[in-house]
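User: My instructor asked us to take a sequence, write out its structure as C-alpha cells, and then describe one feature of it. I'm not sure where to start. Here is the sequence I was given:
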Amino acid sequence: MQPPTRWWPQVLSNLWGDIGYATRTLGRNPGFAFAAIAPIALGIGVNTGIFSILDSVAFRPLPAPRPTELVSVYQDFRGVQKRRVHGARSMFSIPEYRAYRDSTRTLSGVMAYSRPWTVTLGGQSPQQIEGAMVTCNYFDVLQVRPSMGQGFTVANCGSPGAPPVVVLSHILWTRAFAADPGIVGKTVTLNGQSVGVVGVAPKGFDGVDLSKVAFFVPTWMEALVQPERRFHEDPHTSWLTLIGRRREGAGIANVRADLAVIARQIDQQQPGRTTVLNVAPATSLSLPVARAEVFSLAAIVLGAFGLVLLIACANVANVLLARATRRAREIAIRLSLGATRARLIQQLLTESMMIALAGGLAGLLLAWWSFHGLLAWMLSSLPGTLPPPRIDAQPSLNVLWLALGLSFATALLFGMVPALQASKQDVQTALKQEGGRPRPGASRWLRDALIGVQVAVCMVLLVSSGLLLRALHAAQTVEPGFDYRNVAVVAYDLRGPSYDDQKVVAFQRRVLERVRSLPGVDAVARASKMPLSPGHRQTSFRFPGQEQAHEVDVNTVSPEYFSLIAIPIVRGRTFTASEREDTAPAVIVTEATARRYWPGQDPIGRRVLMEGQETAAEVVGVAKDAQVSNIGETASSYMYLPAGPGPDRRLGFLVRSHVDFAALAAGVRAVTRELDPGLVARVDRLEGNLDFWRAVSRLIAGLSGSLSVLALVLASVGVYGVVSYVVSSRRREVGIRMALGANAYDVVSLILRQTMRPVVAGALIGIGGAAAASQILQSVLFGVSPLDPVAFLGAAVFLLGVAVTASLLPTREALRFDPMTILRYE
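Assistant: Let's start with the prediction itself. The C-alpha cells for your sequence are:
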C-alpha cells in the first residue's frame, strides 16, 4: 500500500478534473441538474431555516461587547429543606450572589438579574410594562454604557437607603416619553412608587433574557414595588440569574473549579446541602430547565424536518441511479480502458458533491428568504398575552456551517450507493447492450428500497399532520364544559406601596360593588385562576391521620363562580358568602377527583388537610367535570377553595353581561379611573383563553401540514420518476406484449403490481412508525387519541391514491405509442 504522500496529490489532481467534468455535465443536462438540485435545496433549506431560529434562541451570544467572555451560572443543590422559588430552583439568592461576586478569582465581575416582571407605569395613560431587577454592576459587567445619563452608580444604587432609581430602555423612552432629551433627573411612577430616571439604555438593548424588558431597577427596590414578597435578603429564595465576565486567560474549566470552591463554602453554612454548579457560555436561553424544554422541542421539530431531507436524498439517489444505469456502457468503456473502480467512484461522488453544494447554497438562500416570513407568521400567531421573544433568524456562522455539513452529508447519503452500484459493472455484458440500453431489472431492488423509504417517511408525516389537524378541529369545535360566551375577565395589579392589606381588601369590595351595578351586568365572581388560562396553581393535601401527600390543582373562587360560567354542582352545595379559605375551611371537588379518591363513595362530608392549613377542610360539594386547565383534558385532581375578602394583590374576577363587550370594558375602566386613576384594568374576553389553545393548535397544525405537503410532493415526484424510468426502460417489452395481443389493462396491471409493491410495503412500515411517533404528540392533541383511526386510515388512503396516480400517468403516456413504432425504434 502506497503512503498517503504519494497518492494524495494524485487524488487532488483528479478532483479538480472531476469538478470541471461534473460542472460541464450538469450544464449540458439542465433538466437532470434541476431534478437533482431542487429536492436537496428544499430539504436543506427547511432544515437550515429551522436551525437558524434555534440558533437565535439557544446559541447566539448576549448583546454585549466581547460576549464570548460572558458565562452564565446556575446551581443544582440537594439536601435543602427550606427554599422558596420565584423563577427557577436553579437561580440564586442575594447572599449567594454576593458570595460569588466577592470571592471569585477567575471572573472580573459577577452581576445578577431577575426574570421579567410586570408593573404599572403611571401617567396620563397608565400601562403595564415588563422590567428586570438587576444588581448595581449589571451594565458594568456587560460593558454596556447608557446612551443618556450615568446609569447605576455607587451614589444612586449603593444601598436600600438611596432614592429609588430606574434606567429606561431606548424604546420605552421613545414611545412613552416622546424621546424627551431631559428625561434624566425626572421621575416616573412604577406601581405607585416615584422613581428617578438615571439613564437610558443604548438603542437595541432590551436586556439579556429571551423576553425583552422595558426598564431596569436595582434589586433592593423589590421591597418597594412588590411589598408582598420581601425576599431580597432571604438566603433561601431562588430568584436571580448570575452572569460573569471571565478574566483574560481564564477558561470555562477554570471558572467552574473556582466557583465550586465558593459553592462548598456556602454548603458548609447549611449542613446537608450539596451544590453542583452549571457554568456555560452565556446566551439568552441559559436557564437549564428552559434550555432542556427548548432542546426537547427542537429535537422533535428538527427530526421531522430531517425526514423531509431524507425523502429528498432518496429522490436524488433514484435520479442518480437511473442516470448511472443509462451510463452503463460509458462506465464499462472506462473500465475496459483501465480506469479503476475507486477512480470511477471518486468521479461519481464528485458529481454528487457538486449537486449537494449547489442544493445547499440554494437551500441557504431559500431559508434566508422564506423563514423571515415564517418567523413573522409564527410570532403573530402567538397569543397577545405572551411577551415578544428576542429572536433573530439572520444566518450566523453556526447556520453556515450547518448548511455546509448538511451538503456534505447528503452528498454521501444519496451519492454513495448509486456510485457503488454503477461502478460494479460486468464489462462484457455492458458493452454488448444495444445502444447502452439498460438491462431490465437492473438495480430494481435498490429503486424499490428507496421508494419504500420515501413512502414510509411520508406516511409518518402525513399521519402526524392528520392527527394535528384533527386536534385543531377539536380545539375549534370543543365545548369545554362551561359557558364562556358573554363573559369578561377583569384583572388588577395592586402591588406597590400605595396599597397595604387593608386598602387591598377595601378596593376589592368597592370595585366588585361598582362593577355589579354597571348597566347590563348579570353576575360577578372572583377567581384566582381563570378557566383555560395558561399555567397551573397547585398545592398538596393529606387525608387526616395519613402522611402521604397528594398533588392537586386548586382554584380559589367565590360562590357565584359556578353559576356564572354554568358549571353545575351535581352533589352537595356551593360555598356560602361567610366561608373563607382560612376561617371556615370548605372545599368543592370535581367528579373526576371524587372518583379518584373516594371511588364508589359519597365524598360529601369527607375531610382533607390542605397544605399550610391546621384545620381540615370539609368537602361540601361536587362540581361537574370541565376542561378548565387544558383543552381536551379533564384534570383528575382538581379542587375549589372559597375566596374570601383577603389581601389578594392580584385581583381577578369574571363578569357576565348581556351588553356589548366594548361597552362593558369601557364601563369597567371608568370605574377603575374613579377609584384609582393610576391603576390599569385589563379587560379581556373569557373566550380569549380558549383562543390561546386554538392559536397553539393552529400554529402546530400549520407547520405540520406544510411539512407534510412538502414531503408528499417529494415522495410523489420520486414515485413518478421511478415509474417513468421503469416504463421507458421496458418500452420494447411493452411493444412486444401489445403486438402479441396484450391489451392496455394487462400492461397497466403489470406495471402497477410491480410499482405498488414497494409503496404498500413502505406504507405499512410508515404506519408502524407513525404509531410510535404519535405518542410524542400526545400533549398537543387536545382530546384526540394518538391512534385516531380517522387520521391513520385517511393518511394511508390518501398516500396510496397519490402513488397510484403518479404511477398511472407515465404508464398511460407509454400506451399512446404504436407498438410497431416502438419495435422499429428499439
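For the description part of your assignment, you could build on this observation: The longest helix spans residues 687-729. Try explaining in your own words what that tells you about the chain.
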